[in-house]
Specification:
It contains 5 helices and 7 strands; from the N terminus they run αβααβββαβαββ. The protein is α+β, with helices and mostly antiparallel strands. The protein has a domain of about 110 residues: Aminopeptidase. The protein has a 7-stranded mixed sheet with strand order 1-2-3-4-5-7-6, with helices on both faces. The protein is globular and about 40 Å long.
Length: about 150
């Protein structure tokens, strides 16, 4: 096993809870800057019912997070955020979090949004079977547009 495989094998996915609030705040700021969730948004994501929240820990440090909402009345799930610590990007952790969230949501249709400039995320989502469904102008705080992607699961 090489060093790259070694750290990946030590990454544990588990449910995130309100006890992870501080770690989520740090990760959100690190990953999203001024578009990071507010303290209230993080608290809501970690406590609302019908929400999937999975964290990726490496040696007791949160290095990734995914949060998804179950919308049973529409038979869809929305992935609200996927955050991967910059040191661990482009190594498969985002894909692992995405797949785990899709499975935990258990809905036939999964949707998510991303910045039009986030080509790495766009490439990942296309590889995972997502297709563009909508375009939202000025969605982000910076005024950047968003793509809405969706995927039908079997």
């Amino acid at each position: 096993m090489n060093a790259e495989e070694g750290w990946q094998a030590r990454v544990a996915l588990s449910p995130a809870t309100w006890r992870d609030w501080r770690s989520v705040m740090v990760l959100e700021k690190l990953c999203f800057g001024r578009d990071a969730w507010s303290a209230l948004d993080v608290a809501a994501a970690l406590t609302f019912p019908a929400t999937v929240r999975l964290k990726a820990d490496l040696d007791d440090e949160m290095i990734g997070l995914v949060v998804g909402d179950i919308r049973r009345h529409k038979q869809e799930g929305w992935i609200a955020t996927i955050a991967v610590h910059p040191t661990y990007r482009r190594r498969g952790l985002g894909r692992r979090l995405l797949r785990a969230c899709e499975q935990a949501l258990g809905m036939p249709l999964i949707k998510l949004t991303l910045r039009v400039s986030n080509l790495a995320a766009l490439n990942l989502y296309k590889q995972e079977g997502y297709q563009q469904a909508q375009f939202w102008r000025g969605y982000y705080a910076s005024g950047e547009d968003a793509l809405v992607m969706e995927k039908r699961l079997n």
